[in-house]
Design goal:
Blueprint: E1 14-18, E2 26-32, E3 35-44, E4 58-65, H1 77-80, H2 84-98, E5 110-119, H3 124-145, E6 158-166, E7 169-172, H4 176-180, E8 184-191, E9 196-203, H5 210-236
Parallel strand pairs: 4-5
Antiparallel strand pairs: 1-2, 2-3, 3-5, 6-7, 6-8, 8-9
Length: about 240
């Protein structure tokens, strides 16, 4: 039985609290169970030099874990330098957000989404993508309200969720204990309309089957649909 008698196809309790930072153009705190991530979207009225003449804006992301976001204290990455895991995750977040933005409609603007993990209990990259989308949309809403953008460049929702094989069964929204003992671990980044942005999957002990993969994908689609509904409710309020 999963923690708090959670069913195999159930998300953890999900809460997205918007406008948690008074300075950022867009911000939220996303809580997926005991994983808590602060997401802020900052707007610059300039673009990277390598985009000059392309007629496009840019969306990027940065990710980090605070020293006591895990069971034992870790050193700040500013002191020891970014690790490969951090770089991989922040590139994933950036790719995921750019996948649903028409960059030609934000020409002249760069949006940086910072995802800072306050507390980690598995699924931090998935929570960062899901919350980062909300923070980015809030920043874009502000640009539209100020008359700096003529139309909304966001084409669809994007969210992410982890799934795994645990004790031989497919489960949705894997926490740390489950992830540490899973036979397979996958992360699905999907759009609200069901498009696939990215899938990451690893067998931990022995290969998993196509049938098991399809079961994981089915769970992910269910979870993403629920996360999309939560995102939309937060943005509509």
């Amino acid at each position: 039985m999963r923690f708090e008698n959670r069913k195999n196809d159930s998300l953890r309790n999900v809460e997205i609290i918007k406008d948690t930072n008074i300075h950022a153009e867009g911000s939220c705190m996303i809580k997926m169970g005991n994983t808590h991530v602060l997401c802020t979207a900052s707007v610059d009225e300039k673009t990277p030099s390598w985009l000059k003449g392309e007629g496009k804006g840019w969306v990027t992301a940065e990710y980090g874990m605070l020293p006591r976001s895990t069971g034992s204290r870790m050193n700040r990455e500013a002191k020891r330098g970014q690790g490969g895991r951090t770089q991989e995750i922040q590139r994933l977040i950036g790719r995921s957000l750019r996948a649903i933005v028409d960059l030609s409609l934000i020409e002249g603007f760069s949006i940086t989404v910072d995802c800072d993990v306050i507390q980690a209990d598995g699924g931090t990259r998935c929570a960062s993508i899901t919350g980062g989308y909300v923070a980015m949309c809030l920043a874009i809403k502000k640009l539209i309200a100020l008359g700096k953008l003529k139309e909304n460049p966001v084409k669809d929702n994007v969210a992410a969720v982890s799934c795994g094989l645990y004790d031989g069964e497919a489960i949705l929204d894997v926490d740390y204990i489950e992830d540490s003992n899973a036979q397979a671990d996958t992360n699905f980044v999907l759009t609200g309309k069901g498009g696939i942005v990215e899938i990451q999957g690893t067998a931990e002990e022995e290969p998993f089957t196509e049938e098991q993969y399809n079961e994981l994908l089915s769970l992910a689609k269910k979870g993403i649909a629920e996360l999309t509904e939560i995102q939309n409710k937060v943005l509509e309020d």
